[in-house]
Amino acid sequence: MRQTLVAGNWKMNGSRSKNQQLVNAIKSGLREGTTTEVAVCPPAIYIPQVMALLQDSGIHWGGQNLSQYTEGAYTGEISASMLLDYACRYVIVGHSERRSLYGEDDALVAEKFVVAQRAGLVPILCVGELLEERESGETEAVIGKQLDAVIEAAGVPAIGEAVIAYEPVWAIGTGKTASPEQAQEVHAYIREKLAAQDAAVAEKVRILYGGSVKPDNAAELFAMPDIDGGLIGGASLDAESFLSICHAG
Ligand code: 13P
Predict the structure, then answer these.
(1) Which atom number of ligand 1 is nearest to the Cα of residue 172?
(2) CB 155 within 8 A of CB 147
(3) 78's torsion region: left (phi>0), alpha (psi -120 to 50) or beta?
(4) Which residue has its alpha carbon closest to ligand 1 atom 5?
(5) How far is the CA of 28 from the centre of ligand 1 (A)?
(6) This model's pTM is above 0.90
(7) Residues 113-172: pLDDT tens digits?
(8) How far apart are the first and last CA of the chain?
(9) How confident is the model at residue 244, as a pLDDT?
(10) Gap between the Cα atoms of 81 and 242, Å rounded
């Protein structure tokens, strides 16, 4: 049985006072006995603050990005070991905003995945197609290629130790959610693709859905057989919305 995971990707949002309110509200609002695993990924500068607030809470935290290098003259970058130094469990790798706005290609994403995992972080590997790719019937080919780059660099067993997030680019921040059936179709494709190489890995890996997940669509999405939770953007900035998504698992 895969444990549902709901992770908040705060992107470049927050402030010390807002974070404190948000994290405290999540901590106190999370229902006792909830079986869903919960994580938040704040901007890197706020990770120490979030660590202090969440220590011993059972809620995990993680980074939104990392450098492919371990240390050295890379101005502005943050390494895997720095994230670990602040007890991050997760790091998002290959988010579509990193791919499209910062030129991260499949090869670089694969490199970051390997570096994160080797250091002891759990990568949340994001994959997803653009609207024009979906409309021209290329969804599976695009996602297959994004996955293959990581499988080639890290090997299939490594995927079993990571988390995958399917985030159709056209659904991110647009209010347009993939329907549960549309999302399930892609999640099943990912799992079948992995199963063709290693059935145990396919069965084990958690595949999250991301893209305009809100309190009113989370339960329906999470009920699909191959959807194991969500990677939440906008709705993770509001405690009430985020908690209601966490409780939909
Ligand atoms: P939204 O939930 O704001 O659409 O963002 C999704 C996302 O990109 C999470 O990583």
Answers:
(1) 4
(2) no
(3) beta
(4) 233
(5) 24
(6) yes
(7) 999 999 999 999 999 999 999 999 999 999 999 999 999 999 999 999 999 999 999 999
(8) 13
(9) 98
(10) 29
Alpha carbon of 131 to ligand 1 centroid (Å): 15
Token representation of residue 125: 């590997």
Domain boundaries, the chain: 5-64+74-235
Identify the pLDDT of residue 175: 84
- Tell which residue, 180, 189, 188, 185, has the closest CA to residue 248: 180
Tokens of 78: 């943050």
The answer to whether the CB of 230 is under 6 A from ligand 1 is no
Cβ–Cβ < 8 Å for 178, 211? yes
- Nearest-CA residue for ligand 1 atom 9 is 233
Q: Assign domain 5-64+74-235 one CATH number from 3.30.43.10, 3.20.20.70, 3.40.50.170, 3.10.20.90.
A: 3.20.20.70
Can you read off the two tokens belonging to residue 245?
């998504």
Q: How far apart are CA 117 and CA 66, in angstroms?
A: 11
The encoded tokens of residue 128 equal 């997803």
Angstrom distance (rounded) from CA 116 to CA 84: 10
Ligand 1 atom at shortest distance from the alpha carbon of 165: 10
- Phi, psi dihedral angles at 14 (to 5 degrees): 120, 170
73 C-beta neighbours (distance < 10 Å), count: 6
Ligand 1: nearest atom to the Cα of 210:
6
Residue 21 predicted with pLDDT over 90: yes
**Cα 170 to ligand 1 centre (Å):** 10
